Amino acid sequence: MSKYELNTATSRANPTPQPLRRLTVPKIRARKQDGVTAQPVVMLTAYTARQAQLLDEHCDILLVGDSLGQVIYGLPSTIPVTLEMMANHAAAVVRGSYHSVVVVDMPFGSYEASPGKAFESAAYLLKASGAAAVKLEGGEAMAPTVEFLINRGIPVMGHVGLTPQAVNVLGGYAARGRGDAEAGKIVGDAKALCTAGAFAIVVEGVIEPIAIAVTEAVDCPIIGIGASAKCDGQVLVTDDMVGMFERVPRFVKRYEEVAPMIASAAKRYAEEVRARTFPGPDQTYQPD
Ligand code: KIV
């Protein structure tokens, strides 16, 4: 039996009955109190309604990451991802979830030029999808934009350290923070975003002491990926975590091996089609 119980009571603030009450951005922000996060934030990427349905009850946040460019569309990086792609996948994830906060990535080129451009893009994403918040990459330089969005009703999650949209500047996806200057900049970036009002910040691909330093230095929850178990929460790309790819970064733990299961199902199906043993009696309709 489903654990969801449909609450049919409506109000003007809640005109469409929902099985569950969703977590909210302020509740995620409040997980970290006086530098302590008793209940770590669980975040996974989701790109489709079905994926969202399977992940929802286990997560606090579903991130519609621009990693969908590589994972779903086979693109070489996140750079070509468009606002329309993000809006469509975010809408599917909202439709497939009732519990988690849905956060949608702002794609490259949709927010960097000015706070006004960022507002237009973020407002479009939230209107088109029903997601609750946006995530954007970049540190101190993006702080005024973060503040501008928040003051206009758009919650923002930050993203510092290894920022994949900057791959052409960084020259690759290697872990960041190995030199003193870069380490100091990553901590400064996170502090600036938090002061600007970001409700949480992803810290990606940094050496562990920097991940810990950022987590200790910043008031809002720090969500690590390739960072440290001592962060206030963790995120992984779901398709990496379930074993959809042969090769994954070393910070990924594969909790299942789904790719061989799909390949094996396709192989057996193809064999049965070629042998004319599928469809069998159970899968065909006969006259009454
Ligand atoms: O796009 C994405 O999936 C992300 C996560 C890796 C944090 O930004």
Count of DSSP-assigned helices = 11
Poorly predicted segments: none
Helix fraction, binned, reads 25-40%
Alpha carbon gap, first and last residue: 33 Å
User: How would you spell out the order of helices and strands?
Assistant: HEEEHEHHEHEHEHHEHEEHH
Which of globular, elongated, flat, extended, rod-shaped describes the shape?
Answer: globular
Proportion in β-strands: 5-15%
Radius of gyration: 21 Å
Number of E-state strands: 10
Largest sheet: 8 strands, parallel, barrel
Sequence of strands across the biggest β-sheet: 3-4-5-6-7-8-9-10
Structural class: alpha/beta
Instruction: Give the names of the bound compounds.
Output: 3-methyl-2-oxobutanoic acid
Determine the mean pLDDT. Answer: 95
Give a verbal description of the structure.
Helix content is 36%, strand content 14%. The radius of gyration is 21 Å and the shape is globular. It is of the alpha/beta class. It starts with 24 loop residues before the first helix and ends in a 14-residue tail after the last helix. Helix 2 (49-55) crosses helix 4 (83-95). The structure holds 3-methyl-2-oxobutanoic acid (KIV). 3-methyl-2-oxobutanoic acid binds at residues 45, 63, 65-67, 105, 159, 202, 204, 225, 235, 237.
